[in-house]
């Protein structure tokens, strides 16, 4: 069965392709259009389809639209209610519903040859749930989905077994932990439905001074649901202008305290919801998706404080992942028990020769070293910054060693330096990559392996002075474990760096600058390298040094 999955209704538009139960490809539209987040989540934009990513995933399998058995659209307008009946202030929401109803026609226009009758609606939270449970390595699991909103709910709790979902509870709107967090994001001067991760980072600088009051406003109901509506945040901290600079004083003032208080209350409620699910199912495994599942601090508390033995989170847990989940669900409904996703590297890639052609066409001097890992480790050991581009691009918001910026973790100033390189706020941390075999000696209080950077771990006190740039203000780090057997070039580089420095860790952040999507193709990589102060670019097996690029060479060719 050949199923194209499409997410278009809210934000992070994306496409995914599942063939005979196997995940072939998945990509976010922003990586092609170079428009951050793809589009804004407003009703007026709900008609926009991820046309570029849809065409690309079909090309990956050599398929035409008429070859598809189904197109899975991750929203079911038949389940929707008018916004006013849901208690939401969204006077144009009816446009969103109308566009969803007309999606089969829009899809057929975007993909000539597609039979409209093959479009199938998958409820939004079911698509999220499938993206977790059906993509995970586990054939049976409990599942927890939380986000801002779907058709009429904000939360789903259930369990999957052999590809079939049993829904245990759904929380009706307007109560939504995701919408509460989005509202706080906007109050703190960040971009709603985009910058929630900044609130999570800011929370570590505050104190939970308002937690007791929030416990009265946001609370579980004991039946699998909760009460959660955004209060007037001004009672605790004034609104911050969106274009105002967040000064260092603000990091530890009332705005940080409010972020800390809401973050802690979110964690507490999520733990209670996960405990309720486990009491119903007794399953050893919990799988999670929805935008709230990108809150890695909360994920770690669920892992530590509930009876689940394992917690698996979809790396594209936000709305982008619903294209994958919708395709998996339709495949399962057709009688195919899907195979687990092979990894988060589901996007575009280029052969070594194609990358060399890009470099020659750009008149960029480069080498193709026999010991690439060693030469890159030398640059890192001398405190250089590496732009790293290797293999298929990541599906989801985390840079996982395919489109990354890498630096030495042993110099505390490198946190500030990387934030300057990227043009982002100084309170935001960067994440350590660590060789899998050494992870447990440095990091604790979180699952290991942790290959998708979706949990926080406590950094051993003996290591905090050795890798200060990797340690957040609260003594934690959001780690990615690297298995050299799975990521050969990256693993070799980490091993070479350890041989030179004694540190099996480098710091990593996404390969982009502020306000722009993550680098996806070689042109993006070369443009960033030409404009950002990084010392070297890895493009597959090829190495470009800034000193050579700006030394006046620029000849077309390669040397070994």
From TrEMBL:
What one GO molecular function would you report for this record? Answer: transferase activity
Protein's UniProt keywords contain Magnesium: no
- The answer to whether keyword Membrane applies is no
- Transmembrane intervals: none
Instruction: Please name one Pfam family that this protein belongs to.
Output: Carbam_trans_C
Where does the Carbamoyltransferase domain lie? 2-71, 115-328
The Carbamoyltransferase C-terminal domain covers which part of the protein?
Answer: 377-546
Q: InterPro entries of this UniProt entry?
A: ATPase_NBD, Carbam_trans_C, Carbam_trans_C_sf, Carbtransf_dom, NodU/CmcH_Carbamoyltrnsfr
Keywords in UniProt for this one? Transferase
Q: Which family does it belong to?
A: Belongs to the NodU/CmcH family.
PANTHER family recorded for this chain? NODULATION PROTEIN U
This protein is called Carbamoyltransferase
* Organism (species): Actinotalea ferrariae CF5-4
């Amino acid at each position: 069965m050949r199923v194209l999955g499409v997410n278009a209704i809210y934000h992070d538009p994306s496409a995914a392709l599942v063939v005979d139960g196997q995940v072939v490809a998945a990509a976010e539209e922003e990586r092609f259009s170079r428009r951050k987040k793809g589009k804004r989540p407003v009703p007026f934009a709900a008609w926009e389809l991820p046309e570029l990513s849809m065409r690309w995933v079909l090309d990956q399998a050599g398929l035409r639209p008429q070859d598809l058995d189904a197109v899975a659209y991750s929203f079911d307008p038949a389940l929707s209610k008018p916004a006013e009946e849901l208690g939401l202030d969204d006077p144009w929401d009816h446009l969103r519903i109308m566009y969803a109803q007309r999606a089969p026609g829009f899809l057929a226009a975007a993909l000539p040859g597609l039979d409209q009758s093959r479009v199938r609606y998958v409820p939004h939270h079911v698509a999220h749930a499938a993206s977790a449970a059906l993509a995970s390595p586990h054939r049976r699991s409990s599942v927890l989905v939380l986000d801002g909103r779907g058709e009429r709910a904000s939360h789903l709790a259930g369990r999957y077994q052999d590809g079939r979902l049993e829904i245990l509870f759904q929380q009706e709107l307007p109560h939504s932990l995701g919408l509460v967090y989005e509202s706080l994001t906007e109050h703190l001067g960040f971009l709603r439905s985009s910058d929630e991760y900044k609130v999570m980072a800011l929370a570590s600088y505050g104190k939970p001074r308002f937690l007791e009051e929030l416990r009265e406003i946001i609370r579980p109901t004991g039946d699998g649901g909760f009460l959660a509506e955004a209060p007037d945040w001004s009672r605790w901290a004034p609104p911050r202008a969106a274009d105002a600079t967040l000064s260092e004083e603000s990091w530890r003032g009332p705005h940080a305290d409010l972020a800390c208080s809401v973050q802690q209350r979110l964690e507490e409620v999520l733990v209670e919801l996960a405990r309720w699910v486990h009491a119903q199912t007794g399953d050893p495994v919990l799988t999670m998706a929805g935008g709230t599942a990108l809150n890695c601090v909360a994920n770690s508390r669920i892992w530590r404080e509930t009876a689940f033995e394992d917690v698996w989170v979809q790396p594209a847990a936000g709305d982008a992942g619903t294209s994958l989940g919708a395709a998996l669900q339709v495949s399962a409904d057709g009688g195919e028990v899907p195979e687990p996703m092979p990894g988060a590297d589901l996007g575009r890639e280029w052969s070594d020769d194609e990358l060399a052609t890009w470099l020659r066409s750009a008149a960029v001097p480069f080498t193709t070293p026999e010991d690439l890992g060693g030469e890159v480790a030398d640059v890192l050991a001398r405190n250089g910054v590496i732009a790293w581009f290797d293999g298929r691009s990541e599906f989801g918001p985390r840079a996982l060693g395919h489109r990354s910026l890498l630096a030495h973790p042993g110099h505390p100033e490198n946190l500030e330096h990387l934030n300057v390189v990227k043009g982002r706020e100084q309170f935001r941390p960067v994440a350590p990559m660590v060789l899998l075999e050494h992870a447990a000696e440095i990091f604790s209080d979180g699952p290991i392996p942790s290959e998708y950077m979706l949990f926080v771990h406590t950094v051993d006190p003996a290591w905090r002075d050795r890798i200060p740039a990797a340690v957040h203000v609260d003594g934690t780090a959001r780690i990615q474990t690297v298995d050299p057997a799975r990521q050969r070039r990256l693993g070799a580089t980490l091993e070479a760096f350890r041989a030179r420095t004694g540190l099996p860790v480098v710091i990593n952040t996404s390969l982009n600058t502020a306000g722009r999507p993550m680098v996806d193709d070689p042109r993006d990589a070369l443009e960033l390298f030409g404009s950002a102060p990084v010392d070297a670019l890895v493009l597959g097996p090829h190495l470009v040094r800034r000193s050579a690029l700006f030394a006046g060479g620029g000849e077309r060719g390669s040397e070994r």
